[in-house]
Amino acid sequence: MLTIIQADLTIPEHTQAYLQLMSHYALDPMGGGEDLSDFAKENLIEALLKRNDVFMVLIFKDQNPAALLTAIEGFSTFACRPLLNVHDLVVHNNFRGQGLSGLLFAEIEKIAKARNCCKITLEVLEGNLAAKKAYNKQGFSDYQLDPEFGSALFWSKPLKY
């Protein structure tokens, strides 16, 4: 039996499932291959509970945490409307190949439409062919304003404190 819910991190079952799936994701080579830091494990739930712009969808299969999508609201200045960025998407290895990512995307799309978002964005590693195939199936593609200038690139600059 599948249960698809918008996560509520004040519910211990949701908190435990969220951290378990995030750890599973982090340990995967496509998540960096290292578990979440002790700092993240100890502070992530509290930090997320302080935000009103983060949305999580959980899927349980037979009461086991099976899949997770975390989306964070941003804003499109060109459209003058909010957008949702899919920040984390994980399907536990034991549940892959069962269409769960499509169910996650269907649920986050409902949330995005209810919030009048103009689009849903995500980042994907160039070599993550399985994810790219799944995302294409859901209607995602690389972002271009003008093909002459190529696709947009997601860049990052770590900050040191």
Form type: globular
Helix content, binned percent? 25-40%
Strand order, sheet with most strands: 1-2-3-4-5
Poorly predicted parts: none
Q: Tell me the number of structural domains.
A: 1
CATH superfamily: Gcn5-related N-acetyltransferase (GNAT)
- N-to-C span: 46 Å
CATH class: Alpha Beta
The sequence of SSEs as H and E is: EHHEEEHEH
Nearest-integer average pLDDT: 96
Structural class: alpha+beta
User: Per CATH, which architecture?
Assistant: 3-Layer(aba) Sandwich
- What characterizes the major β-sheet? 5 strands, mixed
What do we call the CATH topology? Answer: Aminopeptidase
The overall strand count is 5
The number of helices is 4
- Computed Rg: 16 Å
Q: In percent terms, what proportion of residues is strand? A: 15-25%
Features:
single chain, Aminopeptidase, 161 residues, 5-stranded mixed beta sheet, alpha+beta
Description:
This protein has a single domain (about 1-150), classed as Gcn5-related N-acetyltransferase (GNAT) (Aminopeptidase, 3-Layer(aba) Sandwich). The chain contains four helices and five strands, in the order βααβββαβα. Strand 4, helix 3 and strand 5 (about 120) form a beta-alpha-beta unit. The mean pLDDT is about 95. With about 160 residues, it is of the alpha+beta class. The protein has a five-stranded mixed beta sheet, with helices on both faces. Helix content is about 30%, strand content about 25%. It is globular.
